[in-house]
Amino acid sequence: MKIAIPRETFEDERRVPLIPADVEKLIKKGAEIEIQSGMGEGSGYDDEAYKKAGAKISVDRKQLLSGADIVLRLRKPPEEEISLLKPGAIHISYLDPFNEKASIDKFEKAGVSAISMEMIPRTTKAQKMDALSSQASIAGYVAVVEAMKQLDKIFPMMMTPAGTIQPARVFVIGAGVAGLQAIATAKRMGAKVEAFDTRPVVEEQVQSLGAKFVKVDLGDTGQTKDGYAKALTKEQLNKQRETMARHCAMSDVVITTAKLFGRKAPIIITKDMIENMKKGSVIVDLAVDTGGNVEGSKLNQTVNIDGVYIIGLENYPGQVPVHASQMYSSNLYNFLDEFWDDEARTFKLDMEDEIIKGCLITHNHEIVNEKLKS
Questions:
Q1: Is-catalytic flag, 130?
Q2: 29, 72, 161, 322: which has the highest count of C-beta atoms within 10 A?
Q3: Catalytic: 297?
């Protein structure tokens, strides 16, 4: 079975789908792996490292893709490259299937089995394959680092000859994977941390990291069966914003992490709230790539609104590509390994498995994913 890994084409993307250590493990299982020359450079892996792991190096991207049984990527593919894949091939990457209808249609017409890494179910069995969580964890860490770089204060309390410096106040909105990592990182750096989430069930996790959980009586909220926060009603959002406004006004750093899978991110921080924040304070919008949680945030820019800096990077995990690649590569390897037939030395789609049912989008010229169909 031939596995092909092309270079990422997304601008400034330095993460790679598979690192040499995982290439070597797959080759030992019987895979033939071919990479496009220069594929690993963004994360510090040259072609020689992949050669030593047993991979072949190709300089012909079209031939690489057209001859593959499995294509591994990080980002969704350019639409024009989908038609290069042979019928029956398997394509695995982030696909953003709810928003990329044209790409999904092309996979369907091409007869390619398209697997979306965003759709890996959040179950105990699939945890080691959960790329969304692994990259979100990195994003939460990077959000704090970016805030520290922008803030004109230090994070920890310090006893100095000139007196005591009070710790920075950090407010994290959303206590999912990214939010919890942001809380932990800010606490390690000595900040005083508060956090809010619409799901009361995460209060204990927030407190276990040493942060204060901000409570707002929103009525029925809860979470989906996959562990995501449910969308709030207009009334709930307004009530939430009233509490957010008070805590934002007291904070030096605010980090927003609220994403709704497959939909536009909700606006949580409005311009009125920003106007009441301290001059020089910092907001990091982790949802800017899906519309943003902060009114006025801009993709890949740091903007100044009334003296408040709003950071809106599109690719937070990509700021630390070595470890982000290591984690994504491990997710991919674990996924392939789970469905690898050691006897036949090949990857097999188990159409009855719950993980495959969750993440397989197209197969045999059909859209087969139930969530996408409904």
A1: yes
A2: 72
A3: no
Set 37, 66, 127, 150: catalytic member: 127
CA distance 176 to 211: 14
Give me the residue label for tokens 């996979």.
107
Taking only the tens place, the pLDDT of each residue in 128-139 is 999 999 999 999
The band of 262, judged by pLDDT with boundaries at 50, 70 and 90, is confident
Q: Is 47 a catalytic residue?
A: no
Evaluate whether the domain defined by 138-319 bears CATH number 3.40.50.720: yes
Which pLDDT belongs to residue 226? 57
Q: Pick the catalytic residue from 130, 197, 252, 285.
A: 130
5-43, pLDDT tens digit by residue?
999 999 899 999 999 999 999 999 999 999 999 999 999
pTM comes to 0.92
Q: Confirm whether 252 is a catalytic residue.
A: no
Same fold, 2-119+321-367 and 138-319: yes
The helix (run of H) or strand (run of E) holding residue 179 is helix 177-188
Task: Please tell me which residue in 36, 113, 133, 325 is annotated as part of the active site.
Answer: 133
Domain boundaries, the chain: 2-119+321-367, 138-319
Question: Considering only CA atoms, which of 112, 132, 31 is closest in space to residue 65?
Answer: 112
Strand 308-312 and strand 301-305: pairing? Answer: antiparallel
> 250 — phi, psi (to 5°)?
-90, -10
Which of the residues 37, 61, 105, 122 is marked catalytic? 122
How confident is the model at residue 69, as a pLDDT? 98
Give the Cβ contact number of residue 212 at 10 Å: 15
What class does CATH assign to 2-119+321-367? alpha beta
Taking alpha carbons only, the member of 353, 372, 354, 352 closest to residue 362 is 372
Q: At residue 363, what is the residue type?
A: H
- 137 an active-site residue? no
